[in-house]
Amino acid sequence: MGLPIVVRSALSAILLAGLGLVFFIGGLALGFGSLAKPGDGFMPTLAGGTLFALSSVHAWRRFSAVRPAAGEKPFWPERSSIFRVGAVLFSVLFYTLAFETVGFAVATLVLFLILLKSVDPVGWPSAILISLATTVAAFALFQVWLQVPLPEGWVSWWRIAQWIF
Amino acid sequence: MDLLNNVLAGFAVALEPNNLFFCFIGTLAGTLVGVLPGLGPLSAIAILLPATFYIPAVPALIMLAGIYYGAMYGGSTTSILVNIPGEAASVVTCLDGYQMARQGKAGAALGIAAIGSFVAGTMGVVLLMLMAPPLARIALKFGPPEYFALFLMALIIVAAMGSGDAVAALMMMTLGVTIGTIGTDQITGNPRFALNIRELLDGVGIAPVAIGLFGISEVFLNVERIVRSDLLAAPLRGLWPSLQEFRVSFLPILRGSVLGFFIGILPGGNPIISSFLSYGLEKRLSKHPERFGHGAIEGVAGPESANNATTQGAFVPLLSLGIPNNAVMALMLGAFVIHGVLPGPNLITEKPQLFWGVLCSMYIGNAMCLALNLPLVGLWVQVLRVPYRLLFPTILLFCLLGVYSLNMSTFEMLLVVVFGVVGYLLRKLEYEMAPLILGVVIGPMLEVALRQSLLLSRGRLSIFVTRPIAACFLAVAAFFLIRAMVSWVRATKPSAEESAGSTG
Amino acid sequence: MSVTVRIRCLCIALGIVLLSGVPGVVRAGEFPERPITAVIAFAPGGAPDLLFRPMAELAKKHLGVPVVIVNKPGGGGLTGTAEVARAKPDGYTVLMNFGGGEIVVSPHLEKVPFDPMKDFEPIIMIGHYPSALLVREDSPWKTLEEFIRAAKKSPGELRYSHTGALGLNNLTTLTFMKLAGITLTPIPTAGGGQAMNMLLGGHVEAAQIAFPVAWPQVHAKQLRCLAYALPKRSEVYGDAPTFAEQGFDMRFTIAQGIAAPKGTPKEVVKKIHDAFAAAYHDKSITEVMTTIRFTPHYLNSEDFTKYIREMYDYYGSVIAKLGITATK
């Protein structure tokens, strides 16, 4: 995105204004009530409306303001930024969505492998070792010590741990 | 003097080796849990409470105190080191603490946080000793209009004190409040904007928002560039605050303690509010407010003291009215009830030993936290030394798992990611995160106070100006708002040359 | 590579240390294996807290696992209750303040996010306490009569705080208002403690809350009870008068018991029941109940289910007879 910062800023304000509008209308639908008996929609309407107003003012100001003379910061500092941010995003999304299906162990392993290899690549041996070690450590910390039930999925860690100990 | 006798007796109990041992265990465990993102003092207590069941009542209470303070401190630790608020009250510590860490001053930040908390705790105990019953009476004067005014004032101060665009900050604040309306209406119980998603019925939740907006977005921001080394932008400078830093922090700690304590005595007073207010106060009083947000140690000292003092202040409503402010106090209440004592106006006079025993045990927990964590500062700081490419996956994992362990909900993990992305984009566009999260946290409370006030006054808005305390807070809020708007208008005016050039 | 190696070793070491330091007990498949979450649908400090926290501690001795109390306030008790209704019926989530207004009153007045009769498995009833109307000790009304007169003179001027628009406390007041022919303005709060605070702070003129919550203040002569809703006086509540003896035939008690989501296996229910029944009979709990002015009344699962059904129908008929609708 090579848009100048002013346009980006105004665009975001417009988006936020839109969001404010959504809540404003939604609040009215829920029932604004009256000053003496505020209803469910009282606050959403007020907040959404204020957001809409503020964002609109902000956008308008941005559009009519002077372009800043100082150096424009590009949106992506490096060309490969998109790739790295995307990789991180993809891996955490995968983790979240696949967590309960594939289970804690597999998900964590995959997460680490992707992250370690994509953003700032680490050699394969190290990557695998670190992934394994972290998975074990996290399992010990969360499931065993904190007693948080982690989904088993494809690999039943608990059985393995029970079998070992 | 009777009072002194009771206090000494309380300390005698609290300082028995057996009790000290449990305190130590509690503090250590609490710190470790508190370090995990999303798991704050309440979660730590919930998780570690089972361990206290196997020991008798007095050491159990002391251990609980240790867990509580340990967890609060652990939360600050991650805020400073990796910009992940351990829990909502530590959000403010992220603002300057993390910047200090990047400048190599993590040791100073961690140290001053611990010391500030301890001093606040001490002051809290003293204030409690001297002023508990009259304080309770003052606290009762706070009704819905006062709360509304207080919350609004806090929100406006934080938005108006931001270093950037005032309107942008207000937008963030409003956005936060708007997001806070998602969930179930507090008063009627009806779902709002929940889109038929079960997990949303409880609202968006402070933990996913805080962790996403601060922790995850930080990771996104950092991976934009290849950082071959670690998080430190500057070499590590010593593990202790320098004399200069101590001097600068002295007054903020005192101010934060007093402010925090008074917020704490209000039934419903919250460490989040006091830490944000303290931050705003320190920035306002500082001779160089532009330093805030870039590693000003006052920005850590004040809020950390404030949120600890609030915990102490929370004892007042419990002990004088029998109303606990939060789950920790509710546990204390339960402990009292088991001993056949119902805390109420007569507690301090009828059962002084119990009262002081409990209080002193809280204080010992506080002291233990300091004693335990100062030596560990050197260890924590090593985390910063880990090459970032190895550190950040761990950060992400802990963020995700930390949130998952709260409610066993993958939906909340998804929320963390969503807010991480939102935070990332907003930060890239130079929006501030502090007003946003404060809005999410305070929004619901603000709304309840507002609606109750309107019900009380039957729709007459005059209620806010006829009551002195409320009017006071609102005046302060208005003052800051107007100042901010004025400077905003000036700052975003089209430049004079442009308009002159077009007419000339 | 050395840094990587160091970190690797740290991770593994940490893992081993943590694994070996485990105090947890691993039992194959038998309930309960892990801590039980007990939900109280009101803010901390209300009547349920006072009673159930000590009981939970005792119950854990019989269950072998801790019972962790979690407050989930909101919606006058509806939020927390609904959450338990939706929870997995495996016995690890239970509702502590089951039997109160959210179950037997609110459903008649509005659509609630659960079915009170079908979504729950009542386990054990512990007792009940009445709803009470309170004013400050220094207020001008010394009896219910005087209060009614003042309310008649200025309808809607007098405000009272309550614990939820659709709850039992508020129903008490609504019934009272209908029977006495007066209008008061309701101010909702999230729990008994908050409602009482409002009264103490002078923000409202009266409060309708569970008597146990108010007791310390009544005892300390800060608050005065104008009436409480039991059919006959009980010495538990001192010399405060009942509604009944002042001409208002009102019975509004908040039953308190424990329930699990429907579908929880019978053996699990029995285990929880036995643990809490044992706690109920413990001397320390009897002391607690006396201290907080709670009327003990034990019922087992079947009787409790019947009792709830009766109360549900009773309040339904009261509401229908008086034509009471929800004030929002």
Blueprint (SSEs and pairs):
The complex is a heterotrimer of chains A (165), B (504) and C (328).
Chain A: H1 5-30, H2 42-64, H3 81-118, H4 124-145, H5 157-164
Helix pairs in contact in A: 1-2, 3-4
Chain B: H1 2-14, H2 17-35, H3 41-53, H4 57-82, H5 91-102, H6 106-140, H7 144-160, H8 166-180, E1 183-184, E2 191-192, H9 206-223, H10 243-265, H11 271-285, H12 298-313, H13 315-321, H14 327-338, H15 347-350, H16 352-382, H17 388-407, H18 410-428, H19 434-457, H20 463-466, H21 468-491, H22 496-503
Antiparallel strand pairs in B: 1-2
Helix pairs in contact in B: 1-16, 2-3, 2-4, 2-16, 3-4, 4-5, 4-6, 4-16, 5-6, 5-12, 6-10, 6-12, 6-13, 6-16, 7-8, 7-11, 7-19, 7-21, 8-19, 9-17, 9-18, 10-11, 10-12, 11-12, 17-18
Chain C: H1 2-20, E1 36-40, H2 47-63, E2 67-71, H3 78-86, E3 93-98, H4 101-104, H5 106-109, E4 120-136, H6 144-153, E5 159-162, H7 168-180, E6 185-188, H8 192-200, E7 206-210, H9 211-219, E8 223-228, E9 253-261, H10 266-281, H11 283-291, E10 295-299, H12 301-322
Parallel strand pairs in C: 1-2, 1-3, 5-6, 5-7
Antiparallel strand pairs in C: 3-9, 4-7, 4-8, 4-9, 4-10
What are the defining features of this structure?
heterotrimer, A: 165 residues, mainly alpha, 71% helix, 0% strand, flat, C: alpha/beta, D-Maltodextrin-Binding Protein, domain 2, ten-stranded mixed β-sheet, 12 helices
